[in-house]
């Protein structure tokens, strides 16, 4: 069964090249050329395994499109953008993107990123821990079987990465995780000191689960080391 990819890119030449390459790699690619069309397709088509999202889109820009996607879906999102720099990268990842590649990029690198994201998402979805089907931490209930979180009985919408960070900390409540350890275990990649990625995800996670993100109860900072689950 072929994985389905939604390609949101307004440049027809880039869209055509990427579509052709990924089709050769064995993927089924659905190209759209603006954010509004993407949201419409997501509401009608079969579930996608990955979304490739350009930031510079006509009408609804890429970040607004990403926010709409994250309202209902945790599908992996790989941002494609001509924008470079840590600010744009942190902003994109902070809105729930899973990875970021800057134009111009090689088709070999793009294919590798796509394969890695889909593989990680597939392994994550298939993972089961029946002995810890639900973890209760304070007012939070973390469900490992359906990857959901409730706070005082109300669903909390987390991205896949946010859920993985919370679950990892909750599964080992007495352990302090360094940023490098969080990155290698959640992203399943080598850590090269890119603290912005971890900082942005921790901040967004706190905004969603903490009563007061500036005085966190659940995700606590251990200065000079990393993060741990609050008592």
TrEMBL record:
<keyword id="KW-0238">DNA-binding</keyword>
<dbReference type="InterPro" id="IPR016032">
    <property type="entry name" value="Sig_transdc_resp-reg_C-effctor"/>
</dbReference>
<feature type="modified residue" description="4-aspartylphosphate">
    <location>
        <position position="54"/>
    </location>
</feature>
<keyword id="KW-0805">Transcription regulation</keyword>
<feature type="domain" description="Response regulatory">
    <location>
        <begin position="4"/>
        <end position="118"/>
    </location>
</feature>
<protein>
    <submittedName>
        <fullName>DNA-binding response regulator</fullName>
    </submittedName>
</protein>
<dbReference type="InterPro" id="IPR039420">
    <property type="entry name" value="WalR-like"/>
</dbReference>
<dbReference type="Pfam" id="PF00072">
    <property type="entry name" value="Response_reg"/>
</dbReference>
<feature type="DNA-binding region" description="OmpR/PhoB-type">
    <location>
        <begin position="132"/>
        <end position="231"/>
    </location>
</feature>
<keyword id="KW-0902">Two-component regulatory system</keyword>
<feature type="domain" description="OmpR/PhoB-type">
    <location>
        <begin position="132"/>
        <end position="231"/>
    </location>
</feature>
<dbReference type="InterPro" id="IPR011006">
    <property type="entry name" value="CheY-like_superfamily"/>
</dbReference>
<keyword id="KW-0804">Transcription</keyword>
<dbReference type="InterPro" id="IPR001789">
    <property type="entry name" value="Sig_transdc_resp-reg_receiver"/>
</dbReference>
<dbReference type="InterPro" id="IPR001867">
    <property type="entry name" value="OmpR/PhoB-type_DNA-bd"/>
</dbReference>
<dbReference type="Pfam" id="PF00486">
    <property type="entry name" value="Trans_reg_C"/>
</dbReference>
<dbReference type="GO" id="GO:0003677">
    <property type="term" value="F:DNA binding"/>
</dbReference>
<keyword id="KW-0597">Phosphoprotein</keyword>
<dbReference type="InterPro" id="IPR036388">
    <property type="entry name" value="WH-like_DNA-bd_sf"/>
</dbReference>
């Amino acid at each position: 069964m072929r994985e389905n990819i939604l390609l949101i890119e307004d440049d027809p030449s880039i869209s055509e090249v990427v579509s052709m390459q990924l089709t050769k790699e064995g993927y089924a690619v659905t190209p759209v050329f603006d954010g509004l069309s993407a949201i419409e397709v997501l509401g009608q088509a079969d579930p996608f395994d990955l979304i490739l999202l350009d930031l510079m889109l006509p009408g609804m820009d890429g970040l607004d499109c990403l926010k709409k996607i994250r309202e209902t879906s945790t599908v992996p999102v790989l941002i494609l953008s001509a924008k470079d720099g840590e600010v744009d990268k942190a902003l994109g990842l902070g809105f729930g993107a899973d990875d970021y590649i800057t134009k111009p990029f090689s088709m070999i690198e793009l294919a590798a990123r796509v394969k890695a994201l889909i593989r990680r998402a597939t392994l994550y979805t298939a993972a089961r821990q029946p002995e810890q089907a639900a973890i209760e931490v304070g007012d939070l209930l973390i469900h490992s079987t359906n990857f959901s979180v409730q706070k005082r009985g109300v669903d909390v919408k987390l991205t896949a990465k946010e859920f993985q960070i919370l679950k990892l900390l909750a599964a080992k409540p007495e352990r302090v995780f360094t940023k490098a350890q969080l990155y290698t275990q959640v992203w399943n990649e080598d850590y090269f000191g890119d603290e912005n990625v971890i900082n942005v995800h921790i901040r967004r996670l706190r905004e969603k689960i903490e009563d007061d993100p500036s005085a966190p109860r659940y995700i606590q900072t251990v200065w000079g080391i990393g993060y741990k689950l609050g008592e």
